[in-house]
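Run log, item B.
One chain of 344 residues. Sequence copied directly from the ordering sheet:
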Amino acid sequence: MPLLTKPSANSGAVNTSPLPSPPASVVAPVADLAKLRFAARELTLFPQHAVKSALNGTRRSRFRGRGMDFDEVRPYQPGDDIRSIDWRVTARTTSPHTKIFREERERPLMVVCDLRQTMFFGARRLKSVCACEIASLLAWAGLNAGERIGALVFGPDKQRDIRARRSQHSVLQLIQALHETSMALLPTNKPASKPHGEQDASITEQDKRYNLSEILEDTRRVARPGTSLMIISDFHDLDATGERHLFELARHCDLSLFHIHDSLESQLPPPGQYQVYNGTQRFLLNAANTRLRGHFEQRYRDREQYLQNTALRLQLPLLSFSTEQPVFDTLRQAFARRGRRKRS
């Protein structure tokens, strides 16, 4: 987590006292994530869209076969089940006709949560904490809808795979994985100290082990057709390869993107000299440099525009979250449970 320090009144001098910010946990507590099950009752994630899975379940689809919902009657064809013959229509038309029903299909929910090192960042709240809250709310809402819940949690150098199940234990297992992966981001939980050069190389290798393209590629191997797939990340390293993986995922899954950003990513702090610490090295940041500020802001705008254009080209829902706002408010605006219609 990069740490900024305040500039002193004397220009050129650096004050090492930290910037003031409200107290907040750097790791989302398990108990708080578990309590989100009550708030998730206000969310509905699954409108009645046709799905692409061939599995039996609770969602109506365009697939036809044996089911509970009658669809139509058509002329009998070789291979049709004789138990579905409509004898009244057959007698009336003097030719065999069979009933066709709508099958119910399952749309399991899979949450993909990015908890790599870049998510351990924030001015007042960490992006990783917001990601854990979003993932928990989505999982609880999916369970309330009667869906099977699965997840992939990616840390700097590890991947946690939560098998899809329709049980509270599956959500609690996801919450535990989110907590443990977040704890691994803390500098105190990194391996024992080594010689300076060797330690830097080791940390750099771990932090670069998973990039977004590899995360999406692993997701393609796990996600089954018809899955409601929700990817939570800051998408800072989205590139053409990652875009191609998103395209392939969107062909077979109901894909949604949840983007987390922080104000310090879009604009540098007020002009002054700042010390920046990334857990291994310290840097001196001159936020008064006009050229640096302009380059920093333009780079952020370009990255945001690329993400929005990608979502638009692939026709993917893109929901943006700020670390300065409660994540539930944003989710409630997008997935608020519709009230019952009043009787006329």
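Observations after the first pass:
- The chain has ten helices and 13 strands.
- Residues 5-23, 47-67, 192-208, 338-344 have pLDDT under 50 and may be disordered.
Flagged for discussion on Thursday.
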